[in-house]
Amino acid sequence: MVWLDSGLGRRELAQFLRSRRERINPEQVGLPVGPRRRTAGLRREEVAVLAGLSPTWYCYLEQGRKIRPSSEVLDSLARVLLLSEDERRYMHMLAHGQVAEPQPLDTGFPPEDIIRQLVRTTGIGQYPVYALNLSADVIAWNHATTEWYADFGALDPAERNMVRWMFTDPTARIRFADWESDAQDIVARLRTVPARRPHDARLARLVVEMKRLSAEFRLWWEEHDVIEQRSRLRTLCHPTLGNRTMRLVVVYPSDTDSYMVAYHLPAGPNDTL
After folding, report:
1. Helix (H, G, I), strand (E, B), or coil: what is residue 154?
2. How many Cα atoms are found within 13 Å in the side-chain-facing hemisphere of 177?
3. Residue 109 burial (CB < 10 Å; 0-12/13-18/19+)?
4. Options 1.10.260.40, 1.20.140.10, 3.40.50.620, 2.170.16.10; CATH of 3-96
């Protein structure tokens, strides 16, 4: 259930909008400040007009009435109320339980650099650590990844994609003890991305390419199976180290939702690194 469906959620959104409205100086949005003005910040009617809304409807929203604003309305309010990206996301989460069209957060440090450093500093052990974008392009990996998967550094940059490698490189079918299960799993995980990024051109090109290159990918993609990212066991096969079952855990750094880091951990609580 979306939190807005509860009275608590509606009150929280109403209070948040009111607090943001009251902090805006009218001059910030091009409105004159007359000598008789007593309202702190903007008036409700002013917010409504600037956002292209009915004053009565916006008043209901600030009163916590049982109405549901669209994503477009929320973004219009975010523009008028000069919300930061964090505040805009928060408002969307209150109203819909998810963020519509998330924008990159400005941390002063490129997200891809953060991801590369994260892999570099945490991937010093014997277990694979690699980083992907949402289209499964491999952007960073540790030495253990080259042992258990492939040396992505030796591949052409256009081929450094986990999905492409799994379906087109014969080595992949050797490295996975149960290739079919893991391949179906990665297709089902990839299936969730278009719902969050419907306009992702890179993902669209990848799907078209993979449907052309692999009949198995085409079959499983059209089956529409969906699996959210969650930990799972994966057994990898090494020519000299033998078979090893690991727990695959995917994490998303807080500064960006466009990249993920895949960690391989001991399969059981009694296993050691």
Report:
1. helix
2. 11
3. exposed
4. 1.10.260.40
Tokens 């891809």 found at: 112
Report the top-level CATH class of 111-266: alpha beta
Secondary structure class of 46 (helix, strand, coil): helix
The answer to pTM > 0.85 is: no
Q: Are the C-beta atoms of 36 and 129 separated by less than 8 Å?
A: no
CB 42, CB 18: distance < 8 Å? no
Phi, psi of 40 (to 5 degrees): -75, 120
**What residues contact residue 148 under an 8 Å CB cut-off, 6+ apart?**
128, 175, 236, 238, 244, 264
Is 3-96's fold the same as 111-266's? no
Query: In this structure, what token pair is assigned to residue 135?
Result: 């289209």
Residue type at 86 in one-letter notation = D
The tokens describing 264, both together, are: 């391989």
Sheet with 138-141: list strands edge to edge: 138-141, 129-133, 259-266, 242-251, 232-238
Distance of CA 249 to the CA centre of its chain: 16
Domains in the chain: boundaries = 3-96, 111-266
Q: What is the mean pLDDT of each run of 10 residues along the chain (273 residues)?
A: 59 90 84 70 90 94 89 93 87 76 61 89 93 95 96 94 97 96 95 81 94 96 88 94 94 82 85 59
Which residue(s) pair with 232 in the sheet? 248
Cα angle for residues 13, 15, 18 (degrees, 5° grid): 110
At 37, the amino acid letter reads: R
pLDDT at residue 216, rounded to an integer: 97
